[in-house]
Amino acid sequence: MTPSTKMFAIAALGVALTAGPALAQTPGTAKPPAAQTPGTVKPAETQKPAPPATQKPAEPAAAAPAPAAAPKPFPEGAKIAYIDLQYIASNSAEGRAATTRIQEYAKKKQAELEGKQKALEAARNKLLQGGTVLSDAARGQMEKDIDKMARELQFAQQEAQSEQQQLTQDLQNEFQTRLNPVIDVVANEKGLHYVLSIADSGVVWVNTGLNISAEVMKRLDAAAKTK
């Protein structure tokens, strides 16, 4: 029985996190010590002995982080298992290669669109700066050229978005085509009846020993090396 798996999205672009600048701290102005006014000396009084200082108990040392728990063994005789498709897509060689291809495409198209945008802005600035000295014919021609450039930019943006969506879909299909036979092999070796996608199963608790994602990913990477 071939396990059924659902399509998943490969992340195309990373999110850049920028840390805000630290606020400069203004040093406070120190106040001068108050002048002491000499007073009348009182006769010495009998002082009570001060109570012995109580020492606070030493704080316990910070506990060392617990070592990562070893993966649970696959339950003997189990007929159901699950995989984490997002984990496999994000960590397998095939998934990382697909993400890199999408990122490179997006970077290339972004540079092209930025070049068109700058050219359009330059043309608009030229029209504004020379508007008073241009003839009506020249002004009209520049306005037509700017309208054409704006339409071409809009079309290029739509085309780039459509091409990226198609590339993503093609890579997803390609990844799925390579992943399914690997799942089938692992499932048959373990004598499984079902292999679930954990993200789509609606499960609220599961024995993590049923997770065969790492084994499937290992087999997938091995198959990629023999291509």
- The rough form would be described as rod-shaped
What number is the mean pLDDT?
79
Q: Whole-number radius of gyration?
A: 35 Å
The H/E string reads: EHHHEH
Share in β-strands: under 5%
Descriptive notes:
The chain has 4 helices and 2 strands. The chain is mainly alpha-helical and 227 residues long. It has a domain at 80-225. The protein has a two-stranded parallel sheet with strand order 1-2. Helix 1 (85-91) runs parallel beside helix 4 (213-225). It is rod-shaped, with a radius of gyration of 35 Å. It starts with 79 loop residues before the first strand and ends with a helix. The relative contact order is 0.21.
Write the layout of secondary structure elements.
Blueprint: E1 80-83, H1 85-91, H2 93-129, H3 136-190, E2 194-197, H4 213-225
Parallel strand pairs: 1-2
Helix pairs in contact: 1-2, 1-4, 2-3, 3-4
Features:
227 residues, 4 helices, 49% helix, 4% strand
What's a concise summary of this model?
This protein is mainly alpha-helical and 227 residues long. It is built from four helices and two strands.
